[in-house]
Write a structure and sequence with these properties.
Radius of gyration of chain B: 18 Å
Number of helices of chain A: 26
Radius of gyration of chain A: 33 Å
CATH architecture of chain B: 3-Layer(aba) Sandwich
Helix content of chain A: 55-70%
Oligomer: heterodimer
CATH topology of chain B: Rossmann fold
Largest sheet of chain B: 6 strands, mixed
Number of domains of chain A: 4
Number of strands of chain B: 10
């Protein structure tokens, strides 16, 4: 039988190729996810090694389990250096990404969407520094800085030039005294790396302490002894060695890479799932076409087991060959994805192609597994073919849907809905929720696929009405062919359904979020302007600047901080703002008390969201105890209860007086302000222009502009999701082409007859293209309906602070369906061409 | 080789002269029809200079042993296959001058087909199958004629049935009705009863013969069955790609005799 299996494969190269193609695609997406993340990991591991460099030990503060990491006193550096066995010690002062931004000569800020802009303190000791001077001299005094040589060249900074630099404490003028190299070959992965004198950087960040102290050991020093000696120098510090430092650094990068890898794998899983439908369908059709041949095998003595084994053997060969091809294709896809990300604005480093043993094993498991799973059903069916079939004439008009299939489909659908519902509303824990949702969605798709043949005939009939009306007999035949084998149509359409359901869901969620945002802006925002800073480093003195401006009537920054509250000391996020200014900026729908009437009588006021107030039975006058990250405790007095929780996004709104008193983070997240009465448009525009000139890093938007901008972000996210889903849609379209190619092959005689009795090649092509369009539209309809359901469930499950209304983007969905139809038309190009070129006589004789 | 769209009268006259004395107007003719497959040593001359005409309003049977070229001749006459040399004429149209699209239109508008099996589109019901050539052409069928044809083949109560719901004989009757419905100049039938039992086969042949007598239809039928051939007005015999004789007003016995003589 093995020889027969192999001969079968060799003898039907087209069928083999069509089946294998689906597997290759599925495998290649999985492989590309791995190749991409492995490549990134290799790059960033190298980066980590450069960052850690020659630091033998590092003294740093112990991370508290709550609150900010404290900095160390600068005096500790000298104490560390004086410790026995220490050859050199250097302070380490860092800044958050993009907190310090040099303004290039053209005034156009370096984007914060790509690689970060990072400032560190210059360290003279080469053993403890990742940087080497390439040109010029090291920055030594205030007003001097160095920059890595590639960033300087890329962004137009030249040695000796003086540039504006945006810092947390304001904009300063700095002279570029040196060009440096990071590590051996300045592998910065596109980042802009700046070095400032330690004291200078401390002044710019407004923190006189140091983050940690890097230590180089003296030759022959006892590492353990030095480590112990250093640990006892200051309370609340720990001393870690080079290896720990390196692995922590790598873990930090790996987390980000893993998130990206998991997202990619998620999309690969969708593609794989879609591919299984296609592989299954291909096997089912191919074996259906070979029914007579299988009957003949049974007739000459093959038993059902041999038939089943032969079919599974074919699947195994296809699985192995296509998995191997998929690995190669995956490497290409990884390259393509890199280019795609680059085009989307995330600049990707040049990477080596890393194909690990793990990747190869996973590819083989996935490819062979998917093929075998897809082949099991068709193989069983093939084994049941009766010998008598060999003697019958084939080509039936259609099949009906079995009750068993319907019942099983309904059960799976119900189970999927139950799992999804539990995932959305009942379960807790990310892993549980994600797996419940994934399984639920998969079950829903399988269930719909099993049930949908029932509606395939009526739906394609309705959909084919325009075709029948306009394309005459070609349209009528296309409609009937689409409904001819409902199971095949349903499975082919199902592949497309999955992609379109995902897109529709994303569209519904996105539209709902945007609708909620717009309605909130319309109903709750009374401020004239909203000021934001995209990189999260809001200029600290902006509020004060606006305060001083006579045109501004009300202004408040909004801040967020983790606090502990309640009997269980739950960690929750609270919002800080100038309470008395808030009513002039946002209509929070205050139901009890007042945001302004407390001044002078209450020391630490707090406004409470209505749901929280109801939960805890709080009313104005009650007190709420909170522990802050700085270690301080306050008993806050409830002064108001508000109903609109969308703006504040946390259950408690504190006044900035308390905020400052307890030493909570003074960084605003965003700011909004209202103009004084009588400030006209021209003066307002002048004010905004002055603001953006003084603070080039901020965006000043009217509420309408702000809503548009956020809607733009939502659309951007949707575009990214859709780009990934597009892969699944492409696979589905290949599936349609595949099914049609096989159908054309199957209906060769019928096509020959049509041509013999006078169907022109054009009519024939049109017939096949219309059939494909109908299948695609059917899949799109299923996808849109399923996606609307998913989207509805997702919106209901999302917190009300994100969105609570379900909005359906009708036009976009209509466009989506139309695109699917056209794509189906295009997918049929090849099969239609091939069919129209059939030799009439050969076809009739087939 | 000179070619023209209309066949010069002398050629038709020559073709007529070659097949017999009866001066009936021709519906179709082959002149020096030659079809060669393969090259060099493996060359097969399926048709080797066949001159033959088919009379209007008559049923002509083409007979011959397997490999005699009878099916090839029919395929070439019907515009399904191309000659290597020579000419094929339907009415006054030289098929060798037509391109693929024109051939398709000719088949659709002027020719009817009945095959041995798989005559019908499985997704269309009987009535739709019958109207198919006219639907493809986008012409409106002559309703009274179609009704007449359907009545002639006796299908009245089966029109809404799909082919899979019809017996083999009923399917062939639908095929005959389809071939006749568009009033083609000529109907080609390739072993139309080959897949049927003798009683059903006789029924179908009866319908075809009645179409010739009642409706004035021209039919050319390829068969190897002497009984089927006896329904024809005339039988032409082919062997080794050449015309080997003909027989007017055949009976099964005279056909059998003629067949035996072919072998010698």
């Amino acid at each position: 039988m093995l020889r027969l299996t192999l001969k079968n494969l060799a003898g039907n190269r087209v069928r083999f190729a069509l089946t294998a193609f689906a597997v290759v695609l599925a495998v290649s997406f999985v492989v590309s996810s791995f190749v991409l993340t492995d490549g990134l990991r290799q790059q960033f591991d190298g980066l980590s090694a450069e960052i850690v460099g020659g630091t033998d030990l590092m003294v740093r503060p112990v991370e508290p389990d709550f609150g900010e990491i404290p900095s160390l006193p600068g005096s500790l550096v000298a104490e560390v250096a004086a410790t026995d066995g220490v050859a050199a010690a250097a302070p380490v002062v860092g800044t958050p990404d993009n907190a310090i931004r040099p303004v290039p000569p053209d005034g156009e800020l370096i984007s914060t969407n790509g690689p970060p802009q990072v400032a560190v303190n210059w360290v003279d000791d080469p053993a403890l520094s990742s940087f080497t001077l390439v040109e010029g001299r090291a920055p030594a005094a205030d007003g001097e800085f160095a920059m890595d040589v590639d960033a300087a060249a890329t962004h137009g900074f030249t040695l000796g030039g003086t540039y504006d630099v945006l810092t947390p404490t304001g904009t300063v003028s700095e002279t570029l005294t040196g060009l440096t190299r990071f590590g051996a070959d300045n592998a910065t992965l596109g980042a802009t790396l700046m070095q400032f004198p330690t004291a200078s950087l401390q002044r710019l960040t407004g923190d006189t302490g140091v983050d940690s102290v890097a230590v180089a050991l003296a030759d022959g020093a006892d590492r353990g002894a030095v480590q112990a000696a250093l640990a006892s120098l200051a309370p609340g510090t720990e001393v870690i060695d080079n290896a720990t430092l390196l692995s922590e650094q790598q873990d930090g990068f790996n987390q980000g890479i893993s998130i990206m890898g998991n997202v990619l794998l998620g999309f690969a899983a969708v593609s794989l799932f879609v591919s299984i439908f296609i592989i299954y369908n291909t096997f089912a059709i191919v074996l259906g076409q070979r029914t007579r041949e299988l009957g003949l095998l049974r007739l000459v003595g093959a038993d059902p087991r041999q038939i089943r084994r032969s079919v599974l053997g074919e699947a195994l060969v296809i699985g192995i060959v296509s998995s191997l091809l998929g690995i190669g294709a995956g490497a290409l896809v990884a390259r393509g994805l890199t280019a795609l990300f680059d085009a989307l604005g995330a600049s990707m480093p040049d990477m080596a192609l890393v194909i690990s043993a793990r990747t190869v094993i996973v590819a083989l498991v996935v490819g062979i597994g998917a093929t075998m799973i897809s082949a099991v059903g068709p193989a069983r069916k093939a084994a049941r073919v009766a010998p008598i079939v060999a003697l019958r004439d084939g080509a039936a008009a259609g099949t009906s849907t079995g009750r068993v299939r319907l019942a099983v489909g309904t059960l799976i659908l119900a189970a999927g809905l139950a799992a999804g519902g539990t995932g959305l509303f009942g379960a807790s824990g990310t892993a549980t929720v994600v797996s419940l949702l994934g399984l639920g969605a998969a079950a829903v798709f399988i269930g719909v696929t099993l049930v949908s043949p029932v509606v395939a005939v009526p739906v394609t009939r309705v959909l084919s009405w325009p075709a029948r009306a306009t394309a005459g007999v070609a349209g009528r035949l296309a409609g009937q062919n689409a409904g001819r084998n409902p199971q095949r149509t349903a499975t082919t359409a199902a592949a497309l359904m999955i992609g379109l359901a995902a897109v529709t869901m994303a569209l519904v969620v996105g539209e709902s979020v945007k609708a909620e945002l717009r309605s909130t802006v319309a109903s709750s925002v009374t401020a004239d302007y909203i000021v934001t800073e995209p990189s999260g480093n809001f200029p600290a003195d902006l509020a004060a600047t606006l305060d001083a401006s006579p045109e501004v009537a009300a202004v408040s920054g909004f801040r967020y901080e983790e606090v502990r509250t309640g009997a269980a000391a739950d960690e929750i996020e609270v919002t800080g703002a100038r309470l008395t200014e808030v009513p002039a900026l946002f209509d929070l729908d205050v139901t009890q008390g007042s945001l302004t009437d407390w001044a002078g009588t209450v020391a630490d006021p707090v406004a409470v969201a209505e749901t929280e107030a109801v939960r805890l039975g709080l009313a104005p006058g009650d007190t709420v105890g909170m522990d802050f990250g700085s270690g301080q405790h306050r008993d806050l007095t409830v002064v108001a209860v508000f109903a609109d929780e969308y703006v504040v996004e946390s259950p408690y709104l504190l006044d900035l007086s308390t905020w400052d008193a307890v030493g909570a983070s003074d960084a605003d997240d965003f700011l909004s302000f209202s103009l004084a009465d009588g400030v006209d448009g021209a003066r307002a525009a002048e004010l905004v222009a002055g603001l953006t000139a003084a603070y080039p890093q901020v965006d000043v938007d009217t509420p309408g502009q702000f809503a548009d901008k956020v809607a733009g972000f939502v659309d951007q996210a949707l575009t990214a999701v859709n780009a990934m889903v597009a892969l699944a849609v492409v696979i589905a379209l290949i599936g349609i082409a595949n099914t049609l190619a096989l159908s054309v092959f199957e209906r060769t005689r019928e096509l020959g007859l049509l041509r013999a009795v006078g169907m022109t090649r054009r009519q024939l092509r049109r017939m096949i293209r219309l059939e494909a369009t109908l299948v695609a539209l059917f899949g799109a309809a299923l996808g849109v309906v399923t996606g609307l359901g998913f989207g509805w469930a997702a919106v209901i499950a999302l917190p009300d602070t994100i969105t609570e209304t379900v909005a359906v983007p009708g036009t976009r969905i209509a466009v989506l369906v139309a695109v699917a139809g056209v794509a189906g038309l295009l997918a049929a190009w090849g099969p239609a061409r091939r069919a129209s070129r059939l030799d009439v006589l050969d076809a009739i004789a087939a | 080789m000179s070619r023209s769209t209309t066949v010069p009268a002398p050629i038709i006259a020559a073709a007529r002269a070659s097949v017999g004395p009866e001066p009936t107007p021709a519906a179709a003719a082959a002149v020096g029809a030659t079809k060669v497959y393969g090259k060099g040593d493996t060359v097969v001359r399926a048709l080797d200079g066949v001159d033959v005409t088919f009379d209007k309003g008559r049923m002509t049977a083409i007979m011959g042993p397997s490999g005699s070229g009878k099916s090839t001749l029919m395929h070439c006459l019907a515009g399904l296959d191309q000659l290597t040399s020579g000419q094929v004429v339907i009415g006054s149209t030289d098929l060798t001058q037509l391109n693929e699209r024109q051939l398709t239109q000719l088949r659709r508008d002027r020719i009817g087909f009945i095959f041995q099996s798989f005559n019908l589109i499985p997704t269309l019901n009987a009535a739709e199958n019958i109207r198919l050539p006219m639907d493809l052409a986008g012409t409106t069928p002559d309703a009274r004629w179609v009704e007449h044809v359907i009545a002639t083949v006796g299908l009245g109560d089966r029109l809404r049935h799909r082919p899979s719901e019809l017996s083999g004989g009923q399917q062939q009757r639908v095929a005959v009705a389809r071939a006749l419905a568009s009033r083609p100049e000529i109907v080609f039938a390739d072993e139309p009863t080959g897949n049927l039992d003798s009683r059903t086969g006789a029924e179908i042949l009866g319908f075809m013969a009645r179409a010739v007598v009642d409706l004035g239809q021209t039919i050319v039928m390829v068969t190897h069955d002497p009984v089927a051939a006896s329904y024809a007005d005339r039988v032409v015999f082919l062997a080794d790609g050449r015309l080997r004789g003909q027989l007017d007003h055949p009976t099964p016995d005279t056909v059998l005799d003629a067949m035996r003589n072919l072998g010698q």
